[in-house]
């Protein structure tokens, strides 16, 4: 049962990472980074590194997403290319 | 050209994957890290440091300097954000006030503080967003619980997962939630810029102060056991209290720095109106 969950989360992490680079909308990129961090947090928790998972959830998925959104608020949302 | 880059990425990824083949299996008891380093910490941490949680004993005791300078790095990051982003010259923006009972918005040309103290008018941002009563009520209910949880994470950090960094971030996030759901000025009323600067320095001072206190009392820097000379407790409890004090210092710094970075980023460094 363990490795199927690992594999599923890992595939979702990779697809989040690729989507975050490929997507044109900056706000969507920020949200995808949040999802990426949250999935990484799940992965740490599955591996038993609960302290790291906690930090990842609060810093990576929580506050840094807010910082990204706050910075994007002062830019145009879509990139030129 | 695009395919060349793709080829480079695939090539370096395959090299990295090839390198991982040499790694020991996950959780392998015969891997080098599990043979020399981990057993020493696992076996001796209780008699060395009297801390029930091995993670905390490594974080705050064996690697106490490391955590201290991490806190200093966070403090420096806040300082760098202040230096880079803070703008003191006010931008001449128009000011908007909403009459609370009728909802009529006054648009005043130029910067003014004319109606700031008024009870009938509230100042609103120039990028107007509708007053969302659900959002405001929910966050008003949630924020005390988030802060209570943050304090629990800090205070219970040396028995369970958590500690100064996580608790400080959650505490900062609760204030950021206040700034987002109301507006930036509401958040700044609760904890203003000077207070944030003071707090971020205070946390580092608490950490280094506890270390220096141990030095003054005649032991090594950050050797918490010696605090029992001035506290009415035995050395084991003094270690626990020393680590708790250090965690509180970390939490204060992290909270203040997170909130001030948010304030500077979301208001373009002017601290007048933000996200």
Offer a few descriptive terms.
heterodimer; A: 81 residues; mainly alpha; 3 helices; 81% helix; 0% strand; flat; B: 275 residues; 2 domains; three-stranded antiparallel β-sheet; 9 helices; 5% strand
Explain this structure to me?
- The complex is a heterodimer of chains A (81) and B (275).
- Chain A contains 3 helices and no strands.
- Chain A has 81 residues and is an all-alpha fold.
- Chain A has one domain.
- With 275 residues, chain B is mostly helical.
- Chain B is 63% helix and 5% strand.
- Chain B starts with a helix and ends in a 9-residue tail after the last helix.
- The chains are: A mainly alpha (81), B mainly alpha (275).
- The interface between A and B is medium-sized, with 17 and 22 residues.
Mean pLDDT over all positions of chain A: 89
Note the quaternary state here: heterodimer
Poorly predicted runs of chain A: none
Helix-residue proportion of chain A? over 70%
The overall average pLDDT of chain B, rounded, is 88
Give the termini distance of chain B in whole angstroms: 40 Å
Termini gap of chain A: 43 Å
Q: With helices defined by DSSP (H or I, 4 residues minimum), what is the helix count of chain B?
A: 9
Hey, which two chains have the biggest interface? A-B, 17 and 22 residues
Proportion of strand residues of chain A = under 5%
Going by helix content, strand content and strand pairing, the class of chain B is mainly alpha
Number of domains of chain B: 2
Assign an overall shape of chain B: globular
Q: Characterize the biggest β-sheet of chain A.
A: none
What level of helicity do the residues of chain B show? 55-70%
Indicate how many domains the architecture of chain A comprises.
1
The low-confidence parts of chain B are none
Determine the number of helices of chain A (DSSP H or I, runs of at least 4 residues). 3
Report the strand count of chain B.
Answer: 3
């Amino acid at each position: 049962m363990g490795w199927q969950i690992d594999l599923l989360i890992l595939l979702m992490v990779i697809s989040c990472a690729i989507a975050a680079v490929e997507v044109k909308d900056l706000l969507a990129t920020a949200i995808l980074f949040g999802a990426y961090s949250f999935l990484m947090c799940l992965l740490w928790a599955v591996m038993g590194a609960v302290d790291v998972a906690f930090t990842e959830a609060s810093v990576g998925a929580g506050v840094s997403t807010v910082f990204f959104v706050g910075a994007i608020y002062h830019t145009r949302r879509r990139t030129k290319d | 050209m695009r395919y060349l880059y793709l080829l480079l990425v695939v090539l370096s990824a395959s090299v990295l994957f090839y390198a991982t083949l040499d790694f020991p299996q996950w959780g392998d008891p015969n891997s080098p890290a599990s043979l020399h380093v981990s057993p020493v910490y696992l076996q001796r941490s209780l008699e060395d440091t009297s801390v029930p949680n091995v993670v905390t004993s490594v974080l705050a005791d064996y690697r106490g300097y490391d955590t201290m300078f991490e806190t200093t790095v966070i403090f420096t990051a806040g300082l760098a954000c202040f230096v880079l982003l803070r703008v003191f010259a006010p931008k001449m923006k128009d000011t908007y006030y909403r009459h609370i009972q009728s909802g009529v918005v006054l648009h005043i040309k130029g910067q003014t503080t004319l109606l700031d103290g008024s009870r009938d008018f509230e100042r609103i941002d120039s990028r107007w967003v509708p007053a969302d009563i659900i959002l405001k009520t929910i966050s008003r209910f949630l924020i005390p619980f988030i802060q209570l949880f943050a304090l629990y994470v800090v205070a219970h950090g040396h028995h369970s997962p958590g500690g100064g960094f996580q608790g400080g971030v959650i505490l900062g996030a609760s204030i950021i939630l206040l700034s987002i759901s109301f507006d930036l000025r509401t958040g700044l009323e609760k904890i203003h810029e000077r207070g944030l600067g003071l707090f971020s320095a205070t946390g580092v001072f608490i950490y280094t102060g506890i270390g220096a206190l141990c030095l003054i009392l005649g032991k090594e820097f950050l050797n918490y056991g010696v605090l029992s000379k001035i506290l009415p407790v035995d050395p084991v409890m003094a270690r626990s209290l020393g680590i708790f004090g250090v965690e509180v210092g970390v939490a204060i710094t992290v909270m203040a720095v997170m909130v001030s970075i948010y304030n500077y980023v979301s208001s373009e460094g002017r601290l007048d109106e933000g996200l």
